Amino acid sequence: MTRETKGLRLTNTLTRAKEDFSPIDASNVRMYVCGPTVYDFAHIGNARPVIVFDVLYRLLRHLYGADHVTYVRNITDVDDKINARALRDFGDDIAADKLTLNDAIRRVTEKTADQFHKDVKALGCLPPTFEPRATEFVLARPDGKTDMVSLIQSLIERGHAYEAAGEVLFDTASMPDYGQLSKRPLDEQQAGARVAVDTHKKNPQDFVLWKLSSPEEPGWDSPWGQEAWTTAGWTGKPKGRPGWHIECSAMSAAYLGEVFDIHGGGLDLIFPHHENEIAQSRCAHGTSVMANYWLHNGFLQVEGQKMSKSLGNFFTIHELLETENFGGREWSGEVLRLAMLMTHYREPIDFAVRKLEEAENTLRKWKRAADLAEGSAAVPDEVIAELCDDLSTYSAFQVLTQLAGEALEGDKAAAASLRGALEFLGFDVSAEVDKAAVDEAIAARLAFIRDKNWGEADRIRDELLARGVQLKDGKDPASGERITTWEVKR
Q1: Where are the beta strands (DSSP E) in 166-259?
Q2: How far apart are CA 83 and CA 244, in angstroms?
Q3: pLDDT, tens digit, 9 for 90 and up, residues 307-318
Q4: Taking the CB of residue 106, how many other CB atoms lie within 10 A of it?
Q5: What order do you get walking across the sheet with 69-73 strand by strand?
Q6: What average pLDDT does the segment 335-343 reach?
Q7: Taking a C-beta distance cutoff of 8 angstroms, is the pair 303, 352 a contact?
């Protein structure tokens, strides 16, 4: 294996320093990013890591070659809320052996997972190399890839986990440097999991690896909890389900190995999720690290406030793309993408209507300039250089603005470079338009005009303009009736 750098420097949460990126194996650069929990549609906060790490994925592919980067983003479909819904909707079929638990959970999560894929495609994101589902990695697999039960068993055998009251918990005292990622004082560390944790722990910060399920709860055949199961008066083999953190340790090892290059996610995942991933993985495998570089994107607010359903400012990606719930109109995925990237990924971002409007205007200017190109040129070195400085998208966008200005002054080479850069960054610079959809929108607008509903007519006009379609009203010379023509205009 070879170790080499390509000028890329990344801020490593583990060391709190910006470091030269040197992959373990330049022929297979490996990155894992925590994906969505598909209980409900993904919210706009979920969009930020998807977009940020898509840019990093594109940059790594540029630097090392598209065939030499492996990107894994998981889908969490193990969750008590999901399990409860599966039991509620398909409990009778599961009890009658007409449907397995995995199949029932998949039916529950299929709609939300499909919507997530539709959303991230609209955001201009490339699909990851692998997208494993947590439910497929609970029990031992025929292909021998790492699974959660085997990983937990390894932790028990190595003295890093213990069984208590039917649960298996990680023994944080067995790991002297537990907490090195978050650097939180020991008395501030608390167990974190998406399943309830009882009080039978050796240490307050111990966290659950495996939870006992009752006969009425979904679960998998469990190697642990027989005594607690029997004491409760239940018959047969005990059932259980994994805690939250163990899934990422299993799936990252399954596709990337015991130690890999980059682990990413939102700032909110540093503790307890990523901290506990490190503990599980290192102690199960006997390694000094889980991943060499840990990257975290900053928090997202909406109009200056923390996003919350109670505040009425909780929005899904789907809502922004396909409803008028935010700012009274729909927004294109490209506008959302640019708005997310206009702020450095490690900084907090205030997601506001004015930010989307700014992104929309900027993108329109760039595309108008890129339309002057006769073809696409290679991504400018200046753009790559800025991105190599800890994904400084803001600085890269300054280069794009300069190229746009030169293109509008007649520089064809600048226009081609701009076009190439936009394509590389995940923006669609094709001039193709869905003509049938435009004609349908024009017909609807004309109907509103006939009804003197000027507000709706103007809304349709403005939405088409935002998509690069400019309308021109006139009169039919023969009939004198209003007609509307259109052209693509950035």
Answers
A1: 167-170, 207-213, 220-221, 239-242
A2: 13
A3: 887 888 899 999
A4: 18
A5: 69-73, 29-33, 260-266, 291-297
A6: 97
A7: yes
Residue 332 near residue 466 (C-beta atoms within 8 A): yes
Place of tokens 């030169």: 406
| Phi and psi at residue 17, to the nearest 5° | -140, 155
CA dist., res. 75 & res. 84, Å (int): 18
Taking residue 466's Cβ as centre, other Cβ atoms within 10 Å add up to 18
What is the model's pLDDT at position 197? 46
Q: Write the DSSP symbol of residue 260.
A: E
Query: Of 125-129, 186-190, 447-451, 483-487, where does mean pLDDT reach its minimum?
Result: 186-190
What crossing angle do the helices spanning 333-341 and 101-122 adopt, rounded to 10°? Answer: 80
Cβ neighbours, 10 Å, residue 444: 13
Three-state secondary-structure class, residue 190: coil
Instruction: Give the contacts of 80 (CB within 8 A, at least 6 positions apart).
Output: 194, 195, 196, 241
- How far is Cα 370 from Cα 403, in angstroms, rounded to an integer? 9
Dihedral of CA 459/461/464/465: which sign? negative
How is residue 118 written in tokens? 């539709």
Three-class SS of residue 20? strand
Mean confidence (pLDDT) of the chain: 92
Residue pair 132/75 in contact by the 8 Å Cβ criterion? yes
- Residue 472 near residue 464 (C-beta atoms within 8 A): no
Taking alpha carbons only, the member of 358, 360, 365 closest to residue 401 is 365
Q: What pTM was estimated for this model as a whole?
A: 0.86
| 430 in Cβ contact with 490 (< 8 Å) | no
Taking the C-alpha atoms of residue 247 and residue 276, their distance in angstroms, rounded to an integer, is 11
Give the span between the Cα atoms of 266 and 43, in whole angstroms.
Answer: 13
Q: Tell me the helices (H) and strands (E) count for the chain, helix number first.
A: 15, 16
pLDDT tens digits along 270-308: 999 999 999 999 999 999 999 999 999 999 999 888 888
b/e for 291-325, b at 16 or more Cβ within 10 A? bbbbbbbbbbbbeeeebeeeeebebbbbbbbeeee
Token pair, residue 268, equals 């909110």
Instruction: Work out whether strand 469-475 and strand 482-488 pair parallel, antiparallel, or are unpaired.
Output: antiparallel
Higher pLDDT, 85 or 294: 294
Q: How many CB atoms lie within 10 A of CB 411?
A: 17
Q: Which helix or strand (DSSP H or E) is residue 334 part of?
A: helix 333-341
- CA 22/CA 319 separation, integer angstroms: 40
Q: Which run of H or of E encompasses 374?
A: none
Give the span between the Cα atoms of 430 and 428, in whole angstroms. 6
User: Side chain identity at 61, as an amino acid letter?
Assistant: R
DSSP-assigned beta bridge partners for residue 470 = 487
Alpha-carbon span 38 to 83, nearest angstrom: 12
